[in-house]
Write a structure and sequence with these properties.
With 97 residues, the protein is mostly beta strands. Helices cover 0% and strands 43% of the residues. It has a single domain, classed as Nucleic acid-binding proteins (OB fold (Dihydrolipoamide Acetyltransferase, E2P)). It has no helices and 5 strands. Strands 1-2-3-5-4 form a 5-stranded mixed β-barrel.
């Protein structure tokens, strides 16, 4: 089980351990080092799991989830995300007690 720094396992099926949280781009698991891993295809955690410690298993990939933000002439910044995000494909999960 991986509780921090999952990037070294790109392309592998892994199990991460962290807290269930909701982000703008979907459901995430936040690991002990504040790494965030998105659960592909899951928009939000159900209330019963939100904030709980989970074990989530899936294929770890890196993917761009949103366009880069734009800055206009007035300095206003649009929504977006720089770079790519870690995701788990075909994920399954269970609550740790």
């Amino acid at each position: 089980m991986i509780e921090a720094n999952p990037r070294a396992f790109l392309g592998h099926s892994i199990t991460v351990v962290g807290n269930a949280e909701n982000a703008h781009q979907g459901a995430i698991v936040t690991l002990s080092d504040s790494s965030e891993v998105y659960v592909l295809g899951l928009r939000r955690w159900e209330k019963a799991l939100l904030g709980k410690r989970l074990e989530v298993t899936g294929l770890l990939r890196s993917r761009k989830l949103a366009p880069d933000p734009d800055v206009n002439e007035q300095g206003e910044v649009s929504h977006g995300m720089f770079g790519s995000s870690l995701i788990l494909e075909d994920a399954t999960w269970k609550e740790l007690r």
